[in-house]
Amino acid sequence: MSYTTSASTKGGREGRAILDNGGLALAMAFPKELGGNGEGHNPEQLFALGYSACYGQAIVALGRKHGIDGNTAKITCQVTLSKDDVSFALAVELKVHVPGADPAAVKALVEDAHQICPYSRATRNNVPVTLTVV
């Protein structure tokens, strides 16, 4: 089983991005914090959306194994773009809140989900990812 999608962008961070099937199109803009006007979206926001949804699905898929209803979990993905010695670098914090669940069980689930989530696998050993149970 596999799935492929594609998107195109013209104008980089100050342009327009569109899914090649036409299902979503977004104006792109530098965030105000980086000197832009902030009147659009940026790659870090899109990465945060995708990662939180993908990681959330890993939580749903593994929840029963840990005695947790993964559908009740709220996943917040915080993406930070910062300047390093070479260029720019990303860092991620995944914050997971499961109302009423045992924190130790949630911690085990969070770590287990981090092993199977495709975004976690893609960033492993390249982007620092912090897992936080809230």
From TrEMBL:
Alphabetized InterPro entries for the sequence: KH_dom-like_a/b (IPR015946), OHR (IPR019953), OsmC/Ohr_fam (IPR003718), OsmC/Ohrsf (IPR036102)
SUPFAM superfamilies according to UniProt: OsmC-like
Family to which the UniProt record says this protein belongs: Belongs to the OsmC/Ohr family.
Organism: Labrys okinawensis
Pfam families: OsmC
A Gene Ontology biological process term: response to oxidative stress
Identification of the protein by name: Organic hydroperoxide resistance protein
